[in-house]
Structures are given as C-alpha cells and as structure tokens.
Amino acid sequence: MALISKLFINKRGLDKLKNNLKGKANELLSRTFDQHVTLAVTGLSRSGKTAFITSLVNQLINEGNGTKLSFFDPVHNGTFIAAKRVPQKHFHVPRFDYDAAISALTAEQPNWPEPTHGISELRLSIRYQPKSSILKYATDMATLTLDITDYPGEWLLDLPMLKQTYQQWSQQTYDLMTRAPRAELSKSFLAKLALIDPLASASEELLGELAQEYTALLYTFRYDLGLSVIQPGRFILPGELAGAPILEFFPFPALASIDGNAYQNAPDDSFVGMLRSRYLEYKEQVVRKFYREHFLRFDRQIVLADCLTPLNKGRESFADLELAMSMILQSYSYGKSGLFSRLFSPKIDKLLFCATKADHVTPEQHAPMVALLNQLIHQNKHHISYEAVQIKTLAIAAVKATTSGVSKYKGADIPVIQGQRLAQREGKGATEVFGQKITVFPGAVPNQLPQENYWRSNTFNFIAFAPLSDLTKHQCLPHIRMDQVLQFLLADKMI
Ligand SMILES: Nc1nc2c(ncn2[C@@H]2O[C@H](COP(=O)(O)OP(=O)(O)OP(=O)(O)O)[C@@H](O)[C@H]2O)c(=O)[nH]1
Ligand SMILES: [Mg+2]
C-alpha cells in the first residue's frame, strides 16, 4: 500500500514536473518568438503626427470599448486580447506625452494637442492569441512589443545635405531664396550678406545675428507662407539643440565668385571658414547622428502628409510640398543608386503614406486624396526603386472631427460635412475654439498634381475643425481608416 501511494505520489510529482517543464518550455519558446516592431511616425510640422499616435494608442488600449477596427484582422477574428502602455526602451529619448494629448482631446472644451518639437517615444505591449504561426503550438497568448517613435519630417529634409559641400548647399539655397515666393522676404538678409568679405576675419556676434535672421526667415517661410522646404530642418525644430552654436550658420552665396583655392585655404576664423566648419559639424553631429542613432533601428515607417492645407494656400505652397516630398523620399530610396543606401543600411520593410485630415473633405473625395498623394510619391519613382519595401497609401483621419451627410442645394443632393469651426494660429501653439457649427462642401480635391487651370478656378476651402465634444478618455476616438493602418502595419506580426 505504502509502495503504491509512493508510486502514486511519484507519478503525480512526475506529472507536475512535466507540466512545469512544459510551461517553462512554452514560456521560453514564446519569449523567443515574441514579436517586436519599431514603428516610426513622421511628417512635416502640423501634418498630424501627435494626433495619429494618440489615436493609434487609444484604439489599441481601449479595444472593445466602442472600437471600430473591423479591417484589423486580430480584432475582427477575435485573437486580439489587450494592449497596455509599458515603460519605453530608451530612457534618454523624451516620452511621447499620450496623457496630455488625450486630455486635450477629451477635455470639456476639447482641443487639439499642443505642437511638439522633437523626437519622442512610447512603448505598447500587445497581447494576442496566436492562431496560424508556429507560436500556436507553444502558447495560448503571445506578446507583440510595439515601439512608436515620433520625429519631425523636417529632419529628413536634411539628408540631401550629406552629399553636398558647403559651397554647393549655399548655391542651392541661394537659388531658392532668390525665387518666388521666398525672394521678396529674403532680400534684406541677402543684401546684408553681400556686404561681407567671406575671407575676412569673422565677428562671432555678427555671425550669430545673421544666423538668427536666417532662422527667423525659415520660420516665416514655414508658418506664414506655408512652405515645406526648410533647410536645415533643425533650425525651426531644434529639439535638444536649441541655442547651440552648431545651429548658427547660413548659406553664403558670394562663394561662387571667389577663387576655389582661396575658398579651400580660407582660415578657420574667417567668415567662410567658420560657416563651413559649422556646416560640416552639423552634417556629422546632427544629420548623420540622427540617421545612425534613430533611423536605422526603425522597422516600419509612416509618412504623414497634409496635402489639403497647401492645396488651400495655393500653387507655390503646393509646389513646395512637392519638392519637400521628393527630398523626404530620398530617405526611402533603397535602390542601389539611392543616396541613402549608399550611406546607410536601412531595414524598413513597410512604408505607409497617409494623406491626413480626410475628415475635412466629403467621403467621395478620399479617393482623389489618395491619387494625389500617390502622384506626389511616384513623380520620383524614376529615381526610386523600393526594393523589398512594401508600400501603401491611405487617406485617413486619426481623430475624426466632422460628420458627413447629404444636403439639398438648388434641388440637388450634395455631399457635406458638419463640424465645429476652429480658429488656429498655426505653429504658435495657441488654439482657440469657436462654438459655431457649420455645414459645408469644402470643395473637390484634384486627383492629380494640379495644373495651372486648377489654380485659376480653385475653390477649395479648407476649414479647421475643433475635435468633437463628446469624447471620453476610455472610449475609442472616432477615426477614418485607422483600422486599415493597423492592418498594414501590425497584422502580419500577430498571426
Ligand atoms: N480634423 C482633423 N484635424 C486634424 C487631424 N489630425 C490633425 N489635425 C489638425 O492638425 C493639427 C496638427 O496636428 P498634430 O497632430 O499636432 O500635428 P504634428 O505633426 O504632431 O505637428 P507638430 O507637433 O507641430 O510637428 C491639429 O492641431 C489639428 O488641427 C485629424 O485627424 N482630423
Ligand atoms: Mg506633434
């Protein structure tokens, strides 16, 4: 009897041990197979990065609470379990302030999140039931760790500088500053430069003043004229470099007229010597460093583009967006001839372009929005060969601020949107909400790059809307196609 019970205990013990071991093995296996994705979100200032990340996080952590993610397979198939915020990976990178953003959107008097000025990070841990991958044999529950990075698209505008000498960059910038729409505003700055002997010994004070003037011009180009090509990008979005001398340089156009030898041998303390060394330092310590420390670890990239604001501002603003997009795209130009792949070895495998703020137009305009963004992207296709990178384009609204419907006008049905008007001082951070509710047809979006006749008869009327007023923190934000965003970016990692 004693022997039988001993055997029994042993058998029980053995089973326990086996189960324990199996559990440990499963844990080990699932840890080995746990997925990790580093998602980078970029776009020029005001393109909608903060709203996008806030909505993406909000949709995932509140899944099940009013979520409309029907095109996101893990939710549609019921394999999504839950998502939560966990401490981010890099403690030296500022935290993405989700709480401030969601508080602004869900306040009694709702408002858009404040503009941000640099890089930030946030980590989500997403639990799901593996159904198709090898993981299903090991565990009932797997984790996808998602690192999200927000960084200014302006920083990507600097990539082309890496292949330019200070002389070449000066010339190119000068060409831009002497053409409409920048020429008029640049006149007085360029006149001051014309009085300086580039080889004379530099006054640091004058150099600092002129750098400030150049920076002020860049702010005006961006926020008053609505232009997109701002170089160097850090001058208006310095991040942690605000006030550092590395940001105190500017283009010096007179260089074309000085002798090549004199330029090469210009002493370090001459005007041109000092400008040149700051330019070189900027390329090394700022541009190259950003690509090395951040860009190279991104797995998937979302590029947000607000095409509607430049369309509303007019031809020059739109043409500048075209140029900026082609500069930004150089960072994803992975073909063998691409500048980027010659300098670095990126690993991005999915690239999503989103035309943001789609709730500003009536739904049938979303297809033209996508077509327009595709043209902006593909006009550069002859230099770009996206080897091994999957690309998608979507028209989205991260936080939908309007409702759409149909209205009668002169006996005919016309599509309209309705929302609460917002008066906004772009770029300065201050926003003011008007209570006025309006119903409008904002106009048609051209489905290709607008030609001369479009600008002559342009009736597009972009209206800034306030966020809807009945949003709450623990419910999902209303959106357009954020589920398709999640499907493209994450679904293949959650099978
Ligand atoms: N209606 C609507 N407006 C949006 C949406 N996303 C952004 N906006 C508007 O665009 C503005 C800029 O959005 P942000 O998310 O702050 O843009 P950002 O790219 O983070 O801007 P910076 O931090 O300045 O670089 C907001 O203040 C809103 O007015 C959207 O989905 N719908
Ligand atoms: Mg932001």
Q: Can you list the strand order of the major beta sheet?
A: 2-3-4-1-5-6-7
Query: What is the terminal separation in angstroms?
Result: 51 Å
Unreliable stretches (pLDDT < 50, length at least 5) are 426-431
N-to-C series of helices and strands:
HEHHEHEEHHHHHEHHHEHEEEEHH
SS-based class: alpha/beta
Radius of gyration in whole Å, from Cα? 27 Å
Organism: Colwellia marinimaniae
Protein name: ATP-binding protein
GO molecular function: ATP binding
Pfam family, one: DUF463
Keywords:
binds guanosine-5'-triphosphate, binds magnesium ion, 10 strands, alpha/beta, 495 residues, 3-stranded antiparallel beta sheet, 7-stranded mixed beta sheet, 2 domains, 17% strand, single chain
Describe the protein's architecture and organization:
The protein is of the alpha/beta class. It has two domains: 29-151 and 297-495, no CATH class; 165-293, no CATH class. The protein has helices spanning 2-33, 49-61, 73-76, 98-106, 166-177, 183-194, 204-224, 260-264, 271-293, 308-313, 315-329, 339-343, 366-378, 452-456, 482-490; strands spanning 35-43, 80-86, 120-128, 142-150, 300-305, 350-355, 390-395, 402-409, 412-424, 431-440. The strands form two sheets. The protein has a seven-stranded mixed β-sheet with strand order 2-3-4-1-5-6-7, sandwiched between helices. The longest helix has 32 residues, at 2-33. It is globular, with a radius of gyration of 27 Å. The two termini are 51 Å apart. The site of magnesium ion (MG) has 4 residues, from helix 2. One of its GO terms (molecular function) is ATP binding. Keywords: ATP-binding, Nucleotide-binding. InterPro entries: YcjX-like. This is ATP-binding protein.
